[in-house]
Amino acid sequence: MSTLCSSSSIVIVYLWCGVTRVAYSARQVAVIPMQSSKILWRQRMRIVGISVVVASLLSSCMTKDSVHDLASPAQKYGLIFTATEWLPEDNHDPSGHYAGWIQTVRVAQSMQRAGVPAQNLRLLYYDGQSRCEVPILPAGHCQHLPLIAPATNANLESAFTEYCRILRPKDQLLVHLSSHGERSGILRGDLGETLGASTVSNWLQRVQAQTVVVIDACHAGAFIKRMPRLTNPVIGTALDNELGWVDRHGSFGPAFFPHLRSSQGMSLDAGSVRMAFEHASEQYRWHGRQQRWYIEHRFDGQGLPADQLAQLTFTPVLFIP
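Predicted structure:
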């Protein structure tokens, strides 16, 4: 992936060094009277030939990148990765049935409210199969969603590779990663794959755009702490030693992304991100308070085990470099 982002610049630098080296050699030839004019002519032709190649490459880059960068407005993109699903046969809690799909749809809708065009959304969801029949969502909601692919590490890497290639520094990217988090700082999806913090960090660093990331998982703080060399804001929905929460009625992402938009459009500067985080955190905590009785008493009348209940505090975390 790094090759895709840097190979053209390496070629240009190499050829430019070649031009410099040949030009210097030509100057040496010019000041030595004993050298034949034929040798001097050959040296000059080499300079001209290499210069044409370099000019062609630079012209191509200017046409595809620099001129486009100057002429076109900033673009907004959204990437949603949901590696978990709460299917009815696996979850006895009705409020959690299809919570992964419902969250994915609502995050997509919230990114669109923030200013991301539908055609710039990319959805990586569980097994890649939509759940359009889920009754809690409006009829026809699938018609407004982009094509969906399975939430695999390969597809996630492919998405970041594409962003590495096409996004520019003035573009904006919203990322929402949802999975099962572990205290060790690992994300574990329902398809059996694990995702490490350093891997995600490396992918993010190769993207030039302004980026904000939400890690929606238990122990999200532990994952963020293990992300080296962070250069963009990252939000986690739980502290290191705490559980996250998602059900059919609420999660952090849908409350966060719309607050990034103001009358001037979507803004990802530190102040705007912090303000959106504070608004969403209050909504998230309010939802947690509303759910408290249910969490303590439902689940087939058992409630959550006491040790798990103690880890559920609805406390998001924010990292701004």
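Summary: Residues 96 and 247 are 5 Å apart (CA to CA).
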